[in-house]
């Protein structure tokens, strides 16, 4: 009987890359949602910018293919790209500014729609790790629950590590915990706690 692990005289391992194409062993996906409403104006949105600059700098040292998508929402919802970009293509953190309403529900609905496509981002041959981070005080000005209910039906979102990060003295903790799924994944921080959040997010990505 012919060797089932032999393809035209070559070993399976020799042809592994040819069969599966250019598939990375490990994929790290980071999806960032940033509340750009008026309640985060000034030093609060500045803290978000500072933290994300540090997180992306740390991500450069991680192994595997690193993918990132940034969604900002205020009066409007904006996606940094149609699909998550490789970190080297993303081009560094682009500082965001705050003002206007907080249409969190609309942002979550739009993200849920994109994630219905199972090929929305590449999967690692050995491991895929997904991290979702919401920067917000939880003060949504639309019906956020409708969007979150849609997103929670997605298998990727269900299994992902999800953080909700707040720098404000005022917050709606129920909204943030509902997004994160676990109370310990809600990081209610002050400006000088940026390093703490940075370490937690990077640790979750690199596990």
In terms of topology, how is this protein built?
Elements: E1 6-7, E2 10-11, H1 12-20, E3 26-35, H2 43-59, E4 65-73, E5 77-79, E6 85-86, H3 87-90, H4 104-114, E7 127-135, H5 144-152, H6 155-159, E8 161-166, H7 173-180, E9 186-188, H8 194-206
Parallel strand pairs: 3-4, 3-7, 7-8, 8-9
Antiparallel strand pairs: 1-2, 4-5, 4-6
Helix pairs in contact: 2-8, 4-5
Under the CATH scheme, which architecture would be assigned? 3-Layer(aba) Sandwich
Low-confidence stretches: 1-20
Give the CA-based shape: globular
Largest pleated sheet: 7 strands, mixed
Could you name the CATH homologous superfamily?
von Willebrand factor, type A domain
| Number of helices in the DSSP assignment | 8
Which structural class should the secondary elements be placed in? alpha/beta
């Amino acid at each position: 009987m012919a060797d089932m692990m032999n393809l035209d005289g070559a070993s399976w391992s020799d042809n592994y890359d040819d069969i599966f194409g250019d598939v990375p062993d490990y994929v790290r996906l980071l999806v960032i949602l940033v509340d750009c409403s008026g309640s985060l104006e000034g030093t609060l949105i500045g803290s978000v910018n500072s933290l994300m600059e540090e997180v992306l700098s740390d991500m450069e040292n991680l192994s595997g293919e690193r993918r990132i998508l940034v969604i900002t929402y205020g009066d409007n919802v904006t996606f940094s790209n149609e699909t998550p970009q490789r970190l080297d293509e993303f081009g560094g953190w682009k500082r965001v500014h705050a003002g206007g309403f907080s249409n969190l529900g609309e942002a979550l609905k739009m993200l849920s729609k994109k994630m219905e496509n199972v090929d929305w981002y590449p999967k690692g041959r050995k491991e895929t790790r997904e991290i979702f981070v919401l920067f917000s005080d939880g003060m949504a000005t639309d019906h956020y629950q409708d969007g979150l209910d849609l997103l929670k039906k997605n298998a990727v979102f269900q299994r992902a590590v999800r953080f909700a990060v707040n720098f404000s003295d005022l917050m709606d903790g129920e909204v943030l915990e509902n997004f994160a799924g676990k109370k310990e994944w809600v990081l209610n921080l002050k400006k000088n706690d940026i390093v703490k959040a940075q370490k937690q997010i990077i640790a979750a990505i690199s596990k």
